[in-house]
Structures are given as C-alpha cells and as structure tokens.
Amino acid sequence: MKEAVMKDAELRSPVSFVANVARLPQKGLPVVIEADERQREALAAEYDLLSVESYRAELLVASWKRNGVKVTGRVEADITQACIVTLDPIAAHIDESVEALFLPEQSKLGREGFEGGGEIILDADGPDSPETFSGDTIDVGALAEQFFGLAIDPYPRKPGASLDVAGDDQPEESEFQKKLRSLLGKS
Question: If you write DSSP's letter for every residue of the chain in order, what string do you get?
Fold first, then answer.
C-alpha cells in the first residue's frame, strides 16, 4: 500500500490542487494557486528550466451543461531558461489563458465518446473537446501546469545568438536538389 501512495505522489503535479466538483457553487469555485519555493523548484526540474521565479494560476471551476465542468482562468509565471546556443540565462514571462471542459466518465457522451453516437458542437477557436473524469474531483492544478508547460518556448535563444557554423561555405547542391529546384520553378 505504501508503494502505491509513493507512486501516486511521484505522478502528482508539483502544483496539484484537487477541486471537488460534486457540488459547485452557482457562480463557480474560484481557485488561486501560488507556488511556493519547493513547488517552483519542482516545476523548474520538471521542465528543464534554470529557475521559476514566480508561478500563479487563477481559475474558475464551474458547472457546464448538465453534468460537465468548465475550468477557465490564467496561469502566469516568470521563468529563466538556458539559451540553446550560448547556454546563457534568458528570462521569460508566461501569461497563458486556461480553458478546458470535463465530462464524467459515466455520462453517455463520456462513456461512448464522439464516435459512439454522442454529439456536441464545439467552437474551432474555443477549448479542446471535453476530457472525462471519474469520481467527484478534478486536479485543476495539474491542468494549469499543462498550460504552463505548453507556453514554455522549447528553443529559447538569446537575441543575436546564431546556430550558423563558422565560414560562408555553402554545401554543393546535389543533382536531386537541382532537379527539384527546376521543377518548382525557383532559381
């Protein structure tokens, strides 16, 4: 049993916040997550950052449709990454909106999915299709962390840093490249 608890703790988000969605207030449940030093260090390690100076998520967990849940809000953070060219530290600010829909597993749409005959209209500019959840809780902290992770620049580069190799020698163009260029009509 102790192993299962340890494994669950390892998989849990450093900024985990489990919201009970069984009885949400009519105006929704406001959630604010302000990461402490330990949580920021864990986030930095998780995303291979030099540091996370600040992390704050402000979310609203509200009822959606009959049994669903809608989570909206923002996640903001100040981070320091290493330049992919020079390895110098680069400061960055993250300000990402959070929007997600959840349906209970036992709901018809959650059980059968979109292919099983369930139908739902989604806005192309809106949130992704709903995810399912089981029980009465959703880890909205882990959700905010996902949006934080997606907002991190995967290739941070210091202004002026270049990946060019020394020298101006251009490699000789192969026959295939020459033919391809002529077919595309570019000279």
Answer: -HHHHHHHHHHS-TT--EEE-TT--TT-EEEEEE--HHHHHHHHHHTT-SEEEEEEEEEEEEEETTTEEEEEEEEEEEEEEE-TTT--EEEEEEEEEEEEEEEETTSHHHHHTTTTT------TTSPPSPEEE-TTEEEHHHHHHHHHHHHS-SS---TT---PPSS-PPPPPPHHHHHHHHHHT--
**C-beta neighbour count of 53 within 10 angstroms:** 13
| Residue 41 CB partners (closer than 8 Å, separation 6+) | 52
Bridge partners, residue 63, by sequence: 69
pLDDT tens across 20-75, in order? 998 899 999 999 999 999 999 999 999 999 999 999 999 999 999 888 999 999 99
Dmax (CA) of the chain: 68
Q: Measure the CA angle with vertex 153, ends 83 and 19; round to 5°.
A: 130
For the record, the structure tokens of 76 come out as 């903001």
Q: For residues 132 and 136, give the distance between their C-alpha atoms in angstroms, rounded to a whole number.
A: 12
Is-contact 60 28, C-beta < 8 A?
yes
Q: What pTM did the predictor assign?
A: 0.73
Beta-carbon contacts of residue 86 (< 8 Å; ≥ 6 apart): 158, 161
